[in-house]
C-alpha cells in the first residue's frame, strides 16, 4: 500500500566504516521474525540523539538518556514487537537488564549500551528471550547488514526504510546510511519513531548535535500520520570519524554545509518514507503554508489541515472537497485572521482566491489533482513572509482495520 | 448505528406556546426530502444565540449575526443539503435573498429573519428553489411540527434529535423543547452544529443569554466526533414569555436555578445525541479528567484522548489497548507533569495506579468494560481539584465510508 516507496536493495545500502550490525530472532511477538537488532559503534564514535517529548516516555527512552549522558555509546540494542512502555519500574529494570546482557557479551560497561523498543505498549518485555539471542547476534556483526537491520525494526511498516548517500569532503569519500521505522502513532515531537543514521565523517560532538537538530526540523518533525506522538520515539545520529576528513568544527563552512545538507536529505527521505508507508496510506500529501507572520503559525495551520479526519478521508476518496480544507484553515486558531487575503490551492489548481471562490475552478480540475497519489495543498495567508511545510497521508478503511486489529 | 439513542415520537415533543414550525421540500440535494424548515417566533420572543468561532464562518452565520443584533427575531429559516459556506459574496447575497423571501411572505422586515444552512460546503445555494416553497411552508405553520423540524435539519444524521421537558415556575407550567442536528465535522467551539431550543418561560433577555452560555459549557462545548469545527455551527435559545410566570431577572433565584438546570438538561441531551449518532459511531465514550490544576488543563487532556485516532479505533474494536490512552495523556502538553501520581481507569477498572501498571489488572477485566456500548475513561492527574468532562465516539469503518462517499 505504500505510496511511491519501494524497498531498498541490500546493494544500495552502503557500509559505514566503524558500524557493524546484526539481527536475531527472539520470538518476542511472532515466532521466526528477526526482532532483535544489535548495532556496534567503533571506539571514538560520536553520538547525538533526540527522544520523544511524550511525558509517558517508555522505559528504554529513560535508560538510553541516562546512559548516553554518562558514557560514550558503543552498542545500540533495538527490539520490535514490544515497546516496554507503560511498564513502570519493572520496565526500567528490564531495559537495564537487556543492556547488561549486551555488556556481558561484548565486554563493555552497561552504560555504553543504549536500549530501544517498539511495538505493543503495556506488556512486560521478555528479557530472557532477548538475552538468549545476544551471543548469536554478537557473533554475526557485520558492516553489510543495514537492510536486515531496517527490516528488524519494523512493526506495522510494510516496507523497510533505508537510504545511503556519499559525498566528498577534503577529497575523502564520506558515507551516510540511515534506517527508520514507523507507520502509526506518528506525530513526532522533536524526534521520530525510531531512526538511526550513521556516517564515517569526522565531526566535533557539538556540531553533530546541531546537525541532528537542524535535520530534524526539516524531516521527522514535519510529519504526521495520525497526530499521536509515540512513547518510544528516538532518533540517533552516529559519526564514527573514520573517513579521514579533517574534523568539522563548524556548520558554517563549505564542508559543514555540504555534510548538513546530505544528512538532512537522508533524514527527509526516511521521514517521508514513514508517511508514504503510513498505516493504510494510499496518498502522500504535502501541505505548504506560506505568507504567515511566523513559522509557528504556518505550522499550526499546516498541522490542523494534516490532522483533519475529514480532509484525510476526502483525500482517500480522491474527492476535491475543498470546503473541508477551508474549514480546517478557519478553525486553526490564528489571531486577527483576515480571510479576504487568503488563497488556497490543490496542486496548481486555485480553489480560493483572496477569500472568494476562484471563478474558473471546476470539479474536473479539482478531481484531476486529487486523483494523483501525491497531493500538494498550499495555503497563502497573505500576512507575512514566513513559511512551513508538513507531510501526511490519507485516512483509509485500512487505517481503521490495522488499528482495530493490531493486538489480535 | 446510533449508540443507545432512539428516535423521538411526535407525542413526546411538546408544543411551546408562541412557536410554530413547518417543513417543505425544495429538492436542494435530493428530491422529495423535507429540506427547508421555517420556525415562527411570536412577537415578544427573546432570542439568544451562539455561533461558530471558525474564521471561515458561513454566509448565513454572518447574516444571522447582523440581523440578530439589529432587530427582534421573528422567523428562523433553516435549510439542509447545502451549507452556503465558502461561497464568498455570492453566498452572502443568497442568504439575504432567502431572508427577504420569508419577509415577503410573512410581511415582516428582512432583518427579523435569521438564516441557517447545513450540508455540503462550497456550492451555490439554490435561492429560487428555497423561495418557491416558502408560501407553502408559511401556510402550514403549526405548534405541533417539532418532530418534522428535527427531521428536516438532518444531514448525515441517522436519527432525529429532540427533547421536551416540563417544569413548574410560580405554579405555571413551563415547557422547553429543543432540536439539534450534527454527526460529523463536530467539535463545537462555543456553539454546535445546529440546535434550536424554545421555552415559553418569561425571562429577561440578559438572563436568557447567560443561561444559554451556562448550558453550552455543559453540553455542546463538551462534545467531539472528529475534532473538526464546522463553518456553520449555531445554537439558538428562544423564550416566548407566554407561560405566565413572573419574569426571571436573575439566575441566582430558586426559579432561575430550576430553569437553568432544565435548559442545561435539554442541551446536554441534544449534545450527547449528536455524539451517539456520530458518523459511524458504535460506542459512546465519556472522558473524565479529575484532580487537575485548572478546568482548562483537564479539558486539554480530555480532548487529546477524545481526538486520538488510536484510542478511537481501539474503542471500535472493544480492545482495552490502554497504552494508547496513556500515550495520549502523555502528549497532551501539561507543564511540569509528574506521572508518579497519575491514575487511569476504564469504567471502574484501574489500569494505571500512581504512574505504575495496576497489579490486579487483567485483559479480561479491560475487555469486559470495553465491550460495552458506553465506555467511561477516567484520568486522575493528582495535582489539583479541577475537573472536566467531554463526550466522544469511536472511529469505525463506517466513519471512513461516510466521509469518503459524502458527495457521491
Automatic annotation (TrEMBL), chains A, B:
The enzyme's E.C. designation: 2.3.1.35, 2.3.1.1
Keywords assigned: Acyltransferase, Amino-acid biosynthesis, Arginine biosynthesis, ATP-binding, Autocatalytic cleavage, Cytoplasm, Helicase, Hydrolase, Multifunctional enzyme, Nucleotide-binding, Transferase
InterPro entries: Arg_biosynth_ArgJ, ArgJ-like_dom_sf, ArgJ_beta_C
Chemical reaction(s) catalysed: L-glutamate + acetyl-CoA = N-acetyl-L-glutamate + CoA + H(+); N(2)-acetyl-L-ornithine + L-glutamate = N-acetyl-L-glutamate + L-ornithine
Sites marked Cleavage: 191-192
Site feature Involved in the stabilization of negative charge on the oxyanion by the formation of the oxyanion hole, where: 118-119
Recorded GO MF terms: helicase activity; L-glutamate N-acetyltransferase activity; L-glutamate N-acetyltransferase activity, acting on acetyl-L-ornithine as donor
Chief place of localization: cytoplasm
GO terms, biological process: L-arginine biosynthetic process; ornithine biosynthetic process
UniProt GO cellular component terms: cytoplasm
Subunit and interaction comment: Heterotetramer of two alpha and two beta chains.
UniProt similarity note: Belongs to the ArgJ family.
NCBIfam families (UniProt xref): ArgJ, PRK05388.1
Its biological purpose: Catalyzes two activities which are involved in the cyclic version of arginine biosynthesis: the synthesis of N-acetylglutamate from glutamate and acetyl-CoA as the acetyl donor, and of ornithine by transacetylation between N(2)-acetylornithine and glutamate.
Entry-linked PANTHER family: ARGININE BIOSYNTHESIS BIFUNCTIONAL PROTEIN ARGJ, ARGININE BIOSYNTHESIS BIFUNCTIONAL PROTEIN ARGJ, MITOCHONDRIAL
Protein name: Arginine biosynthesis bifunctional protein ArgJ
Species in which this protein is naturally found: Methylophaga aminisulfidivorans MP
Gene giving rise to this polypeptide: argJ
Amino acid at each position: 500500500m505504500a505510496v511511491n516507496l519501494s524497498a531498498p536493495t541490500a546493494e544500495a545500502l552502503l557500509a559505514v566504516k566503524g558500524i557493524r550490525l546484526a539481527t536475531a530472532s527472539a520470538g518476542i511477538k511472532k515466532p521466526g521474525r528477526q526482532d532483535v537488532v544489535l548495532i556496534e559503534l567503533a571506539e571514538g564514535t560520536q553520538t547525538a540523539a533526540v527522544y520523544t517529548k511524550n511525558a509517558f516516555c517508555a522505559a528504554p527512552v529513560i535508560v538510553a538518556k541516562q546512559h548516553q549522558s554518562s558514557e560514550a555509546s558503543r552498542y545500540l540494542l533495538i527490539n520490535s514487537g514490544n515497546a516496554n512502555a507503560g511498564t513502570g519500574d519493572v520496565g526500567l529494570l528490564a531495559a537495564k537488564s537487556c543492556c547488561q546482557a549486551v555488556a556481558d557479551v561484548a565486554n563493555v560497561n552497561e552504560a555504553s549500551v543504549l536500549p530501544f523498543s517498539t511495538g505493543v505498549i503495556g506488556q512486560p518485555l521478555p528479557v530472557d528471550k532477548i538475552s538468549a539471542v545476544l551471543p548469536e547476534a554478537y557473533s554475526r556483526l557485520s558492516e553489510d547488514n543495514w537492510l536486515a537491520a531496517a527490516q528488524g525494526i519494523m512493526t506495522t511498516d510494510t516496507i523497510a526504510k533505508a537510504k545511503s548517500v556519499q559525498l566528498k569532503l577534503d577529497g575523502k569519500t564520506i558515507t551516510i546510511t540511515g534506517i527508520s521505522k514507523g507507520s502509526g502513532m506518528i506525530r513526532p515531537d522533536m524526534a521520530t519513531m525510531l531512526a538511526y543514521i550513521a556516517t564515517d565523517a569526522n565531526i566535533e560532538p557539538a556540531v553533530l548535535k546541531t546537525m541532528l537538530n537542524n535535520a530534524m526540523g526539516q524531516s521527522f518533525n514535519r510529519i504526521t500520520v495520525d497526530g499521536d506522538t509515540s512513547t518510544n520515539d528516538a532518533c540517533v545520529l552516529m559519526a564514527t570519524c573514520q573517513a579521514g576528513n579533517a574534523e568539522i568544527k563548524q556548520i558554517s563552512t563549505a564542508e559543514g554545509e555540504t555534510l548538513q545538507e546530505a544528512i538532512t536529505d537522508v533524514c527527509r527521505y526516511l521521514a517521508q518514507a514513514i508517511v508514504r508507508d503510513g498505516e493504510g496510506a494510499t496518498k502522500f500529501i504535502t501541505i505548504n503554508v506560506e505568507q504567515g507572520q511566523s513559522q509557528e503559525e504556518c505550522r499550526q495551520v499546516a498541522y490542523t489541515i494534516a490532522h483533519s479526519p475529514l480532509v484525510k478521508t476526502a483525500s482517500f476518496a480522491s474527492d476535491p472537497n475543498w470546503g473541508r480544507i477551508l474549514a480546517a484553515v478557519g478553525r486553526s486558531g490564528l489571531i486577527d485572521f483576515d480571510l479576504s487575503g487568503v488563497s488556497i490551492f490543490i496542486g496548481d489548481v486555485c480553489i480560493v482566491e483572496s477569500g472568494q471562490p476562484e471563478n474558473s475552478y471546476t470539479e474536473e480540475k479539482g478531481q484531476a489533482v486529487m486523483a494523483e497519489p501525491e497531493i500538494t495543498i498550499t495555503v497563502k495567508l497573505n500576512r507575512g513572509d514566513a513559511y512551513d511545510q508538513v507531510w501526511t497521508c490519507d485516512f483509509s478503511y485500512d487505517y481503521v482495520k490495522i488499528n482495530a486489529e493490531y493486538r489480535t
